[in-house]
Amino acid sequence: MLLRTDPAAVLGTNTTVLAAGTPSGGPGAPSGDPAPCVVVDPGLGVLDRLRPLLADLRLRPVAVLVTHGHLDHVGEAAELAREHGCEVVLHADDAYRLEDPVGGLGPQLRAALLASVGPVAWTPPERVRRLADGDEVVAGDLRLRAVHAPGHTEGSTLYVVDDVPDAASVAAGGLPDGTGRLPAGLTTTVLAGDVLFAGSVGRTDLPGGDGALMARTLRDVVLALPDDALVVPGHGPATTVAHERRTNPYLLQAAARPARTTDDDDTEPR
Description:
The protein is an alpha/beta fold and 270 residues long. It has helices at residues 47-57, 71-74, 77-84, 107-117, 211-220, 241-247, 249-255, and strands spanning 2-7, 14-19, 35-40, 59-65, 87-91, 128-131, 136-139, 142-148, 157-161, 188-193, 196-197, 200-201, 229-233, 239-240. Keywords: Hydrolase, Metal-binding, Zinc.
């Protein structure tokens, strides 16, 4: 599987390109029809780098996936989808955010973002696919399964692939600890958005966030993921479920909670 991650200049959102197989582009590559791919979380300002990357690898997006509807994750989604005639795909509970992703950030973060980048022009995407838990997105031989993981937002979603990238197709900075190596024995890749980070989890103090829901998501969804899963978060370096299970204080706290109670404590993530 090909996986390329490029952090956006605004808030460092990891924009990720996935396709079945291994890279086939570059100078001297044979001509042919572009292979299907998906782009996940195209953040603000990434299109100028994303277009030549897709052309170089001879890839054609057939879907633009977003893990949740915050502006830093959907900033270029509508434009990218229009360019390639495809759908923007996200969980149904976050679809309303595509009407006004700036307003969904809350007043403080919105003000800080606009002070940094200026006014953001936004036109909602023309085609939207609304997912439910367990739905699949297919791009050629690549299959991604949507796993609803609310807490950061109502519709936050993990995208799970039963495959792992070829190490050569992943930039060194996108690998665990920046080592440039993939741990041995991985079988699964999880695009985690702002649910799970290396050493932390997503904040729950923005509009639509819910600390109790996040606590249940960590216990019932994240801790149910296999240890041999590579985690590509929405910000920061990649990690593995095994590493986070051992070291992430929020997962350690979640693991200590009784299963399926109604009095989960709030989380205080970054």
